[in-house]
């Protein structure tokens, strides 16, 4: 069974952390993963840096630019994590933009992920219809879960389609925004969270964007199965490097 | 073979809509409605009227006597430089602002390189009383100062793009991010034949007035609608798409697309996408783009801000791959010389983007009885300082 499925069955709210591979230093990838697991994080999203991250705000953009300057490439990332399963068992998801995956070759990329023990992919600019027509079979062949996004603007019909196409969890973007743009939730989010809950989707939802502390984590997971922290963790790395990850994580789940 | 977009949004293998879900509602609404809206009689009437009375169309098709003599062929210049705001860009912004109104949008965003599209967008926003925000690379803000001033005077907010190469690519990223953050009230007026479907096709249709006019104008002057060649410069590809559109399936009309080679194809400072690019995804479409083997988009270079883009529109990628189009790249120096030559021979100062197209006559022979239509996409006012600096005038 895929590690993501296993994790989703646990009877607790899940904390997922995103970080950009190669940031702050090229070789921080493995220590960050190990620290996050050690401190009780449930899922990790490893960001494959991209030169033009359209859906990201300044914090993740800057971390991507820095990671690329540090020399990060797809090949280097795969090398860094090739033995990761010897030390960690936490579900690992690669998150990135489609072009680097396309250049690597979608099948070669998926094969490599499966060899390493990556459990799923989030590629925000790979649309549902292209995935279904061209790549679904490949993802399935290599046992990879593809995670789709929904937003407050996604209509019910589209959400049903995405729910049907998903087989892990749905990434619920909390508000109409790029990453890191907004903090805190208002009425729009409450309505959105309620709407999604009332749809009784077959896939659990994990909320992302705008979650930065225990407050927003708790609000987001009132209805949803889990929540993802990205920009706030990147800011922590900027300030502290790979130290004090325990403090960061412990402050979220109080 | 078809060179038009198919029902799935592709030109051959290029095109599509590779967008994050946050953009899906807006792009999908546009996809479902753009053709219906464009075909409404009231839309057509308003569009045609504005093109005529406000833009000043039809733009002349001018027989360039001295240039023709010099290159021993028959050269007609399509004068998009005479449009209101000084370039072809306004054909598209008029169309898209009318589209935005019918979609109920209140706020307009745009990206710009040379500032021509930014000015054309700010202009139609002033005309329609809509809020306008233009994203422009910090480097371009410096090299196209007159256009920045015009946008501000027209009431637009010009926001600098500070990431990456600080040029058109990055301005486009910022505009897309703005749209993600403002999905309800905002329409994004893309300025070239790029972006997710239906943008390349919509922009191409609005610009197709260029070749529609060339057809009847040439018929009047030469007794036939088809020239032997149409030449246009290629940034993202909107002026070329408009100049080629009604000739795409006339296989006896040669289509020549002119890219910016910058300091030279192999100098690392170039924007010649057809030579240096590979298939990939940029700004929501699959096309040819300049990138590292690892799929990172590289930073292009051209002396002309409007051609300083690492991709080409998907229609042009298809014209290149299928062999239907002939692609030529022109260096900064060749373009500047051609711009000065046009000024001296015909009394027309071209935009540096358009100068690239004129440099083709030094590169490639035409027969004395060939009829060559060249699209003069814009005028050189905005580039005066660049010409002065370059030639130490
Ligand atoms: C005068 C002029 N010509 C050409 C271009 C290139 O754009 P496109 O390839 O979309 O026509 C620009 C872009 O700013 C321009 O201002």
TrEMBL record, chain A:
Catalytic residues identified in the record: 45 (proton acceptor), 56 (proton acceptor)
TM ranges: none
EC number: 4.2.1.20
CDD domains xrefs: Tryptophan_synthase_alpha
Name of a matching Pfam family: Trp_syntA
Protein family according to the UniProt entry: Belongs to the TrpA family.
Keyword terms: Amino-acid biosynthesis, Aromatic amino acid biosynthesis, Lyase, Tryptophan biosynthesis
Keyword Transmembrane helix tagged: no
One GO CC annotation: cytosol
GO molecular function: tryptophan synthase activity
Protein name listed in UniProt: Tryptophan synthase alpha chain
Pathway linked to the protein: Amino-acid biosynthesis; L-tryptophan biosynthesis; L-tryptophan from chorismate: step 5/5
Classification lineage: Bacteria, Pseudomonadati, Bacteroidota, Flavobacteriia, Flavobacteriales
Catalytic activity, reaction form: (1S,2R)-1-C-(indol-3-yl)glycerol 3-phosphate + L-serine = D-glyceraldehyde 3-phosphate + L-tryptophan + H2O
Keyword Lyase in record: yes
Primary role: The alpha subunit is responsible for the aldol cleavage of indoleglycerol phosphate to indole and glyceraldehyde 3-phosphate.
Subunit structure: Tetramer of two alpha and two beta chains.
From TrEMBL, chain B:
Keyword Secreted: no
Gene Ontology CC annotation, any one: cytoplasm
Residues recorded as bearing N6-(pyridoxal phosphate)lysine in the entry: 89
Cofactor: pyridoxal 5'-phosphate
Nucleotidyltransferase in keyword set: no
PROSITE patterns named among the record's database cross-references: TRP_SYNTHASE_BETA
E.C. designation(s): 4.2.1.20
Pfam family, one: PALP
SUPFAM superfamilies: Tryptophan synthase beta subunit-like PLP-dependent enzymes (SSF53686)
Pathway(s): Amino-acid biosynthesis; L-tryptophan biosynthesis; L-tryptophan from chorismate: step 5/5
Top-rank taxon, per record: Bacteria
Residue ranges occupied by any Tryptophan synthase beta chain-like PALP domain in the UniProt entry: 56-378
A GO term, aspect molecular function: tryptophan synthase activity
Keyword entries, A-Z: Amino-acid biosynthesis, Aromatic amino acid biosynthesis, Lyase, Pyridoxal phosphate, Tryptophan biosynthesis
Subunit structure: Tetramer of two alpha and two beta chains.
Function: The beta subunit is responsible for the synthesis of L-tryptophan from indole and L-serine.
NCBIfam families in alphabetical order: trpB
Family, as annotated: Belongs to the TrpB family.
Record protein name field: Tryptophan synthase beta chain
High-level lineage: Bacteria, Pseudomonadati, Bacteroidota, Flavobacteriia, Flavobacteriales
The encoding gene: trpB
């Amino acid at each position: 069974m895929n590690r993501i499925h296993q994790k989703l069955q646990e009877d607790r709210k899940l904390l997922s952390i995103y970080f950009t591979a190669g940031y702050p230093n090229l070789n921080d990838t493995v220590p960050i993963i190990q620290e996050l697991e050690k401190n009780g994080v449930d899922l990790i999203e490893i960001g494959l840096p991209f030169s033009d991250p359209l859906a990201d705000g300044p914090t993740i953009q800057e971390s991507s630019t820095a990671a690329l300057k540090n020399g990060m490439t797809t090949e280097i990332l795969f090398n860094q994590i090739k033995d990761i399963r010897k030390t960690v068992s936490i579900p690992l998801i690669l998150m990135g933009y489609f072009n680097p995956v396309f250049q690597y070759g979608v099948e070669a990329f998926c094969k490599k992920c499966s060899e390493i023990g990556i459990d799923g992919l989030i590629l925000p600019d790979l649309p549902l219809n292209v995935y279904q027509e061209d790549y679904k079979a490949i993802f399935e062949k290599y046992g990879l879960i593809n995670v789709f996004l929904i937003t407050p603007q996604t209509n019910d019909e589209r959400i049903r389609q995405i729910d049907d196409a998903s087989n892990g969890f749905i990434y619920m973007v909390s508000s109409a925004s790029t990453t890191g743009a907004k903090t805190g939730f208002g009425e729009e989010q409450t309505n959105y969270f309620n709407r999604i809950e009332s749809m009784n989707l077959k896939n659990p939802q994990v909320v992302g964007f705008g979650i930065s502390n225990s407050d927003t984590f708790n609000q987001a997971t009132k209805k949803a199965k889990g929540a993802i922290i990205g920009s706030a963790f990147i800011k922590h790395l900027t300030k502290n490097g790979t130290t004090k990850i325990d403090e960061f994580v412990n402050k979220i789940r109080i | 073979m078809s060179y038009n977009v198919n029902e799935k949004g592709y030109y051959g293998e290029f095109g599509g809509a590779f967008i994050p879900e946050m953009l899906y509602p807006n792009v999908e609404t546009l996809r479902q409605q753009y053709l219906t809206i464009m075909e409404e009689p009231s839309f057509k009437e308003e569009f045609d009227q504005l093109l005529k009375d406000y833009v000043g169309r039809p733009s002349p098709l001018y027989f360039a006597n001295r240039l023709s003599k010099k290159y021993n062929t028959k050269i007609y210049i399509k004068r998009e430089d005479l449009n209101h705001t000084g370039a072809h860009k306004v054909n598209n912004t008029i169309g898209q602002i009318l589209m935005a109104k019918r979609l109920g949008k209140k706020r307009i965003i745009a990206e710009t390189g040379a500032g021509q599209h930014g000015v054309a967008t700010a202009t139609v926003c002033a005309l329609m009383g809509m809020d306008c925000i233009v994203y422009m690379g910090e480097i371009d803000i410096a090299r196209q100062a007159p256009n920045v001033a015009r946008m501000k005077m027209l009431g637009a907010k010009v926001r600098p793009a500070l990431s990456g190469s600080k040029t058109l690519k990055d301005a486009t990223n910022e505009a897309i991010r703005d749209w993600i953050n403002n999905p309800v009230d905002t329409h994004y007026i893309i300025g070239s034949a790029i972006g997710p479907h239906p943008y390349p096709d919509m922009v191409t249709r609005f610009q197709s007035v260029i070749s529609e006019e060339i057809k009847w104008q040439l018929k009047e002057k030469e007794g036939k609608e088809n020239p032997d060649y149409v030449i246009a410069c290629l940034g993202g590809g909107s002026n070329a798409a408009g100049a080629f559109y009604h000739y795409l399936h006339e296989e006896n009309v040669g289509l020549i697309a002119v890219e910016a080679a910058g300091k030279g194809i192999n100098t690392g400072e170039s924007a010649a996408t057809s030579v240096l690019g590979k298939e990939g995804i940029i700004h929501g479409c699959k096309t040819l783009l300049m990138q590292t083997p690892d799929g990172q988009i590289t930073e292009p270079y051209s002396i002309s801000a409007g051609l300083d883009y690492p991709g080409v529109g998907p229609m042009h990628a298809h014209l290149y791959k299928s062999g239907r189009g002939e692609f030529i790249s022109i260096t900064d120096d060749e373009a500047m010389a051609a711009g000065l030559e046009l000024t001296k021979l015909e009394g027309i100062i071209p935009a540096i983007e358009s100068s690239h197209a004129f440099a083709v006559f030094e590169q490639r022979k035409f027969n004395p009885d060939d009829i060559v239509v060249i699209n003069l996409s814009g005028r050189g006012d905005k580039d005066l300082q660049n010409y002065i600096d370059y030639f130490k005038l």
